[in-house]
Write a structure and sequence with these properties.
95 residues; mainly beta; 2 helices; 7 strands; globular
Length: 95
């Protein structure tokens, strides 16, 4: 992480994890508003990037579809997540 901003109902973070290979900085904003979490992603240049949102393994696809609203088509797939180093578990992921 190269920069962050935190307020009571707002978090913004920027990282350069894609910079060395693609020249991209990734900014993510989390806005807490009216019992909602709004997530905004942006990149410093045009790219064919894919947004993925990972959910805890105990959350079902039905719960995700009922609760999460998106401006884009959201496909829920099974993926892997690492809660500890080199220990992966299956989880649901938006794709």
């Amino acid at each position: 992480m190269i920069d962050k901003e935190e307020k009571k109902d707002y978090i913004k973070a920027i990282h350069n994890g894609y910079y060395k290979k693609f020249g991209i900085f990734h900014t993510r904003e989390w806005i807490l508003k009216n019992e909602k979490i709004i997530i905004k992603d942006s990149l410093n240049k045009k790219s064919k990037a894919i947004f993925r949102l990972h959910f805890h393994p105990s959350i079902s696809k039905e719960e995700i579809k009922k609760t999460v609203k998106s401006n884009y088509e959201m496909n829920i797939v099974t993926d892997l997540i690492a809660f500890e180093y080199n220990k992966r578990s299956k989880n649901k992921c938006s794709k």
